[in-house]
Structure formats: structure tokens, C-alpha cells
Amino acid sequence: MIEFLLSLPMWVGCIVAMISAAVVGLVVYFVSYKLISKYQRDELKDPTSSLFRVVGLLVSLMLSLAFSEVIDEVRVIRNAVEREAVAISDIFKNLILFDNERTQGIRTVLIEYTQAVIDDDWPALANDKLGQRAENSRRQLTEALMSLEPATSN
């Protein structure tokens, strides 16, 4: 269910989550009301009814807080992906300022790093790990960029 909600646009996912929480809350309320209505004793009916209302409200509050936390995590991940994509793009664009022959190897390592992030790191992150291939490529890329010297005054 969470994956389905996250695949929707944010405002649609929020509406679907709120409607789902309201429906679940109403179902719990009506089921508990039917169970309570069997007891005709007034001294038991009023406090129990109030208790079920409070519990239903707390459950819906917990569900909405959990959903907002998931949405926040998705935003953090999306921002991290965008920052990584911008950094890779900047490196690639800045390599154009250098001699094409001297930076061909670096561009190859950059493409290899990008492919390693896509192929290894994203599946590994599902298990809270990082792939070693991307780390090795990043280290090679850093070393190659640090050893690069400008040949022009630009």
C-alpha cells in the first residue's frame, strides 16, 4: 500500500491516505459501536463510547504522522538523487573545458561511476549498504581529477 501511495503524485497520495484513514477510522467506530450497543447499561455505554472515539482519533493521528514521515524520507532521497545528478553533470560539463584527449579517460571513469551508482548502489541501499564498485570508481575519479592540470589560461 505504501509503495502504491508513493508512486502517486504527492497531493493525490495525501488525499488517498486521508480518505483511507477516515474509512478505517469509521469502520472501527461503527464496529465498536455495534459491539457496545449490545450492552444497554448507561454507566458502561458513555465512557466506552468516548474511549473508542479517543482511540480512533489517536490511531488516525498516528497513521497520518507515519505517512508524513514516509513522505519526508522520499523527499530527502529525491533531493539526494538530484544533488548527485547535478554533481555528475557539472563534472562532465567542466571536463569539456580541458583538452578532450587528456580527459577522455576521466569521462570514461565518470560514466563507469554513474553506471555503478545505478546498478550497484541503488539495489544495495535497499539493504542499507553501499556497493564497492561505485566507491572504487569514485576514488579513481577523484584521483584523476586531482592530477589534472590546466593547459590554458581560461
Q: What is the total number of structural domains?
A: 2
Low-confidence stretches: none
What is the residue-mean pLDDT, rounded to a whole number?
80
Tell me the span between the first and last alpha carbons.
54 Å
Provide a count of the helices.
Answer: 5
In terms of DSSP E residues, the strand content is under 5%
Estimate percent helicity: over 70%
- Integer-rounded radius of gyration: 27 Å
Largest sheet: none
Please tell me what the overall shape is.
Answer: rod-shaped
Structural category: mainly alpha
Order of helices and strands: HHHHH
Beta-strand segment tally: 0
Question: What does this entry show, briefly?
Answer:
The chain has 154 residues and is mainly α. It has helices spanning 2-7, 10-37, 42-95, 100-125, 132-147. It folds into 2 domains: 1-80, no CATH class; 96-154.
Structure write-up:
By secondary structure, the chain is an all-alpha fold. It has two domains: 1-80, no CATH class; 96-154. The chain is 84% helix and 0% strand. The chain has five helices and no strands. It has helices at residues 2-7, 10-37, 42-95, 100-125, 132-147. Helix 2 (10-37) runs antiparallel to helix 3 (42-95). The relative contact order is 0.07. The mean pLDDT is 80.
